[in-house]
Amino acid sequence: MTPSARITGSGSYLPARILSNKDLEQIVDTTEDWIFSRSGIRQRHIAAEDEFTSDLALAASREALQSAGRSASEVDLIVVATTTADQVFPSTACLLQERLGIRGCPAFDVQAVCAGFLYALDVVYRYVATGASQCALVVGAETFSRILNWEDRTTCVLFGDGAGAMVVEASDSPGILSSHIHADGTYKDLLCVPVGVSTAYQEILNGRAYTEMQGKEVFRWAVSALGDAVIEVLTTNGMDKAEIDWLVPHQANIRIIKAIAKRLDLSMDQVVVTIDQHGNTSAASVPLAFDAAVKDGRIQSGDKVIFEAFGGGFTWGSMLVQI
Ligand code: ACO
Predict the structure, then answer these.
(1) Cα–Cα distance, 164 to 286 (Å, whole number)
(2) How far apart are CA 70 and CA 162, in angstroms?
(3) From atom 49 of ligand 1, which residue's Cα is the shortest distance away?
């Protein structure tokens, strides 16, 4: 029998420093009320100067392993979703592997910006379902504050730093029921950091690799693509909207989240919302939100949960999981 890929543990980490909307009023021409009313964000966490993506990933991973009752030595695959790697290379997954004190298993990064965690979990799902991995560690970790222009009020108010992790194991009981990831590179210019190592290395050295976003177009596209993605996951599984217990969405904008909840006929009580506390943590947002709802007891064993995310590329996806 083909094993299913079950999420057996989760963990998260948020840097200590909190930047409130009020604090942002001192940095750019904005107001507490504008940020909250347009995005649903009240505060975000910002990594310390000497705190890097691998530090965040390590803390979240340790917690996830502990909650799964696994030791690092049992992990046979590490996949890290990040846009903000510590180094050009080695991958953040290799740095994490070394800090977990393990050797030999495959470890690599996946880059799909805000949809990165769903991409990483999709990869892990397929490894586990084909028997290539028995116990995988999948992490979404970002220091997104490092690629923000703190003089651009249209972007810097929206993002934050953090990490979330899951342990995914081969199991006879149901787990990930289906996963659907998509991309459309024709929209590459609507949401991007337009420089990289190959095109403008000096810009990176000078700390001028910033996120640019045409917010309105991205918003419209996100609502449409995510709406289709959650219907795709239901249709694939022959499932009725009423059978869904929880939506764990990417946390980019509360108005996008509400639009997708409406598409699924879900009450907001069935939607895990962390955007008010975390802002948009890119690849970390889905595992951070999932872990919050597991820790406070909302998500229980047996629940059917939809994950969805949308990011630069464009990239997007949805997944149905039985916990
Ligand atoms: N404070 C005050 N005013 C602001 C701010 C700010 N921080 N930012 C923009 N404004 C102004 C604008 O300049 C504009 O002024 P104008 O009308 O005089 O030109 C006005 O507020 C309205 O701006 P809009 O862009 O129309 O605001 P909108 O309601 O579209 O909200 C937002 C903007 C929050 C960015 C929204 O468009 C959004 O959430 N977009 C999608 C983000 C997203 O989903 N990203 C995907 C994932 S991210 C990733 O992958 C990296």
Answers:
(1) 8
(2) 23
(3) 311
Strand-pair category, 162-171 with 191-192: unpaired
Q: What is the pLDDT of residues 230-248, one digit of tens each?
A: 999 999 999 999 999 999 9
Q: Report how far residue 77's alpha carbon sits from residue 128's, in angstroms, rounded to the nearest whole number.
A: 9
pTM over 0.85: yes
Q: What residue ranges line ligand 1, CB within 6 angstroms? A: 30, 34-35, 38-39, 113-114, 153-154, 157, 191, 215-216, 218-219, 222, 252-253, 256, 280, 282, 310-312
Give the whole-angstrom CA distance, residue 189 versus residue 161.
23
Structural domains present in the chain: 4-172 (3.40.47.10), 178-322 (3.40.47.10)
Going through 120-262 in order, the beta strands assigned E by DSSP cover 135-142, 162-171, 176-183, 191-192, 212-213, 246-249
Distance 168 CA to ligand 1 centre (A): 36
4-62 confidence digits (pLDDT tens): 999 999 999 999 999 999 999 999 999 999 999 999 999 999 999 999 999 999 999 99
